[in-house]
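HOLO CASE FILE
Compound: pyridoxal-5'-phosphate
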Amino acid sequence: MGHPMFNYNAELTNEVFAYCRERLSMDPVPLDFGSLHAMAPGDMKGFITSGGRNADEILNFFRDELAPAVVSIDSPGFLAFIPNAPTKNSLLFDMVVACSGLNGTSWLESSGVVMAENLALAFIAQLAGMPDGSGGAFVSGGSLGNLSSLTVGRDVGRVKHPELAAHEVRFAISSDAHSSIGKALHVLGIEPLIVNTDDHRFTRESLEAALANDQNPSSVVGIVATSGTTNAGIVDDLEGLGSYAREHDLWFHVDGAYGGAALFSPSERHLLAGLRHADSFIVDPHKWLFGPLDCCALVYRNPTVARKVLAQQAGYLDILHTSDDEHYEWNPSDFAIHLSRRARGLPFWFSLVTNGTDAYESAVQSAVDLAHRTECKIHDLDHVEMVRPVSLSIVLFRRLGWSTERYVEWSHQLLRDQIAFVTPTKWEGETVARFAFLHPDTTDELVDQILATMRD
Ligand SMILES: *Cc1c(COP(=O)(O)O)cnc(C)c1O
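Model generated. Tokens follow.
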């Protein structure tokens, strides 16, 4: 019966599902140990053999040796970088996606999948105040979302400015923009106009000042704003920058990979009102929208323009563009720098539809509220102080008298003790501590416990 690699193995299936069930039922998910549980690089020599190894044995090896050598990003104690807290429903549906032969590339192959994904995208676009007809695709992450959007913005700018050489068009970005923005511009071969800000917030005034001092301000064809800087959670002046872009016919891109999710926060969403001006906008469901890695929602105000720039042309692909269903035909492959595509928006769609928007609002809001309560705790303690006020769900604070080495030692010890994963960051040249709250199950007690470990 068939090739042996494709036989159904009921026993192994049960064991894998049992493993998944065990992970899914953990409450809370443990931190695990990261590289503190490192294996010697030689330990897996000889694993790949001509005859193949016993699957049970290898599954056990994964469970006992490899799986603990990660820091589980979905643990409520994971407060470093930007965590990921997928809902149980999103994880379950990720397994459905894994077991189904879905290719989220085109309408022809997966219209049902694309329709569901587009419902989730349209919901985000509507929260952002973007017009009906906005749309795009789910891509692997904010980095690819930024690169794809800026490619479209660049080409639109080139068309508007035939007097400029192709490499001369520029984007205005803030010195606090995410590293993926600089990387995208590097890939695109265009220079940024880097705008320095007084307090790390990119505003219309700082943009106008930078343009006034610039040799060639008319070469700036677009503006990149951030709705929630990764390090500090600062939301740029979207209203001012967006209206400037509208008045001067510039591309306006908003990188909301982390903080775009604040659209779901009743107390913070007013900060994002200027998103309605965006030509392109990204938010990562794999960050603060409780979907599994890896998933970024990329939305264009005018998808037709994006399709013109990014659709891949090839003889064998022509059939993708000849649907008789003209009105609805929607190929996610047309909206980013990708072709074959995992239907990575589906787990988020399933989670949003089954949990409902009230649950999403309260879960996003709980991280903001915990950040503010933590700020109060820090004000009340003698050994720590805030570096700047809380923005969104990020808390930047310092332990008075600590060196960089001390912060690093403390961070390792917290992980070794399986209390939390908190990593120091740099703020204006100084090493400081940082909490990125996101998981609704992170408790005040845990925060108290962490702050207590900083006493000595
Ligand atoms: C995380 C982040 C990115 C990069 O997103 P990935 O999904 O990691 O590629 C870009 N911009 C901001 C503001 C981010 O926080």
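CASE NOTES: The radius of gyration is 24 Å. The first strand starts at residue 135 and ends at 139.
CLOSED: yes
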